[in-house]
Amino acid sequence: MPGPGREYIGEEEKKEILDVIESGYLFRYGDESDPAYKAKVWTLEREFSQYTGAKYSLAVTSGTAALLTALSGLGIGPGDEVIVPGYTFVASMSAVIYARGIPVLAEIDDTLNIDPADLEKRITPRTKAIMAVHMLGNPAGMEAIRVIADRHAIPIIEDVAQACGGAYKGRKLGTIGRIGAFSFNLYKTMTSGDGGMIVTDDEELYERCFAFHDQGHLPQRQGVEIGRRAVIGLDFRMNELTGAVALAQLRKLDSILNHLREIKKVYKDGISSLNNIKFREVTDETGECATVLTLILPDAGLAEAVARRTGSTTLINSGWHVYRNMEQLLEKRTIDGKGCPFTCPYYSKDISYEKGMLPRTEDILSRAVNLSIGLRDKGIGAVYGLGPKDTVATSEKKAAEFVSLVKDVI
What we know:
Blueprint: H1 4-7, H2 11-23, H3 40-52, E1 56-60, H4 63-73, E2 81-85, H5 91-98, E3 102-106, H6 116-121, E4 127-133, H7 142-152, E5 156-159, E6 167-168, E7 171-172, E8 179-183, E9 196-200, H8 203-213, H9 240-250, H10 253-271, E10 278-279, E11 292-296, H11 300-310, H12 327-330, H13 359-366, E12 368-373, E13 385-386, H14 392-406
Parallel strand pairs: 2-3, 2-4, 4-5, 5-8, 12-13
Antiparallel strand pairs: 1-9, 6-7, 8-9, 10-11, 11-12
């Protein structure tokens, strides 16, 4: 049950990946004068910068690696707090924890993204970053978030894992905050199976992220040593095979998203006559990714009735996208078994994560149902609706079928 990018894999991806296979050169670094070195990852990074308008792009192994690298590049560490919405994939929290920071959970609003008003209430002297997640392809309210972040001099990390290719008021998502992190896994708008990307306009931050992702090396090393290693780093380098597929997908991303927006509008118009439903607030109709259509019902009972009819679930039950379902977070199960960073001396506050701690978030999600517009994923409750290659005519037909299916229960 993949995202739309998977359904558009074709001759372009085959060509790019065969180019690498036939060369026999799979490592991301190489001598550009060597014809065996195809430089797919370097090309992907350059084209991703051109696409987003960011000065710097850095390819990594996954969206989680992108978040951890972004946090580390910003210097997030022991005792630092990062504000994260309570509705997001668990990686938004786990990346903070593995940076030895503390996730501070905030409420969402009817965009299903972080509520700017609640966000400001969560800021303390320990707050070192705000993670704005563009959930389910819908841009967060970046205008209001930027005002708050600037007022408190706190950097914004944009988690664009579910919204690659989206935009907010004319700017590509990921370029509005200090740094943006993307995912290319199977469920995303474009995919290379796994993989991710970081974008930023800050040269020093880019260099720190590059060093973290490649054992402390400086950028543009092409496999040779350039200067002394800046920091102790890790290895999150993307390989040429992953880069080849991602490159082909990037080149067709806009056509995929434009098609999704077209069929979503038709489907949404077709079910708008239903009583007792409203749609999730979309912050930028032309910039959202249109991978799902979210219905918000007046109460949880009606939402559950619609979910049963469509063979799905309400969003409150959508697994590790809702803080209350993340048992590993609620119980603070860290890999070392010692509870760090929660129990370490550099963080003196007693923080706990409990069901019910974000009542507005739970209320909204208990009344919300996702319909697929190209993204079919049980993990977010999107199993009924449109496929990514459905036509306008099919969208009209399926909208009528949905109305017929649920009209007697709502």
